[in-house]
Amino acid sequence: MSAVVVVGSVNADTSLHVARIPGPGETVLALGSRTSPGGKGANQACAVARAGARSVMVGAVGTDAAGTMLVDELGRRGVELDQLLRLPDVESGGATVLVDDDGENCIVVSGGANAALTPAQVTAGLDAVDDVGLVLTQGELSVACVEAAAAWAAAHEVRFVHNLAPYRAATPELLALCDPLVVNEHEAADLAAALGEHPDGTDALLALLAGRCRSVVITLGGDGAAYASPAGSGARASARVEVVDTTGAGDAFVGAAAAALLADDDLGRACAAGVAAGAAAVQHRGAQPEL
Ligand SMILES: Nc1ncnc2c1ncn2[C@@H]1O[C@H](COP(=O)(O)OP(=O)(O)OP(=O)(O)O)[C@@H](O)[C@H]1O
């Protein structure tokens, strides 16, 4: 059975619920806290599995207790972990997530084992997976690891999907392989600015990025998502739902959309699947639903 292989970060998330997110120099008391599996790669791998597709994780955690928790939790969520390395002498990656009463968040990520992963380990991990149907990456691994995954996908004629989150500079060569590039509105604007352009509005942003990538998706928060590809462009609206916590909404979108693309859905149907998963994600606390 063909797999979505997620080459990405795995973090232990500590989520702190606060009345409001503090400014510089301020201290606030948390109203509650919980530790759960996170990291954009792991969140997306879980979303792929939740969508019913075969999901394989290529990445790294430490040999610490957090690493053991992460392996257990991802396994329980149906993600294949044979290529998730346990690296000695390095801590597992971690993120501290502040979520306020309005569901807004603010996140600090510590790379740990994710930052120690090498491009050669990424390539070896991909080589070891049987029947890779789609390679999915995000911006929390090193640029060199993402480029190694993209190069592997190109060499093996496998679809490459990149979620440029968090935003960072991307080469024209990497962008040209993305099918699609998935970005939110801020990441899209940052990317456009880096290309020396300041297009006004989503349609202009889509047109600009579609010219640099094989296809592009811009997620629009509560408004859903818009897409453009050589086969056509369009938008998928989100259902109006009560927002509890937006953490991981983008990851839920990307994982569900990748699972749909693996099943040969077109980009419009993949966006519809992503929007439905994103709307479900904002209705629970944390990056992933409790099991
Ligand atoms: N308020 C909302 N109501 C319904 N759906 C939402 C809402 N916010 C986000 N979503 C869903 O999640 C998807 C991704 O959201 P968004 O565009 O905010 O990405 P993001 O900034 O990467 O998210 P995050 O960083 O919070 O995980 C949207 O396309 C939509 O489907």
TrEMBL record:
Places the protein is found: Cytoplasm
Function, in words: Catalyzes the phosphorylation of ribose at O-5 in a reaction requiring ATP and magnesium. The resulting D-ribose-5-phosphate can then be used either for sythesis of nucleotides, histidine, and tryptophan, or as a component of the pentose phosphate pathway.
Coiled coil: none
UniProt GO molecular function: ribokinase activity
Organism: Microlunatus capsulatus
Family of this protein: Belongs to the carbohydrate kinase pfkB family.
PANTHER family per the UniProt record, alphabetical: RIBOKINASE (PTHR10584:SF166), SUGAR KINASE (PTHR10584)
Main location (coarse class): cytoplasm
Record-annotated Carbohydrate kinase PfkB domain positions: 2-289
Binding, ATP: 184, 219-224, 250-251
Entries under InterPro entries matching the protein: Carboh/pur_kinase_PfkB_CS, PfkB_dom, Ribo/fructo_kinase, Ribokinase, Ribokinase-like
Catalytic activity: D-ribose + ATP = D-ribose 5-phosphate + ADP + H(+)
Description of how activity is regulated: Activated by a monovalent cation that binds near, but not in, the active site. The most likely occupant of the site in vivo is potassium. Ion binding induces a conformational change that may alter substrate affinity.
Cofactor notes: Requires a divalent cation, most likely magnesium in vivo, as an electrophilic catalyst to aid phosphoryl group transfer. It is the chelate of the metal and the nucleotide that is the actual substrate.
Residues reported in the UniProt entry to bind substrate: 11-13, 39-43, 140, 251
Name of the featured protein: Ribokinase
Sites where the protein binds K(+): 245, 247, 281, 284, 286
EC number: 2.7.1.15
Alphabetical keyword list: ATP-binding, Carbohydrate metabolism, Cytoplasm, Kinase, Magnesium, Metal-binding, Nucleotide-binding, Potassium, Transferase
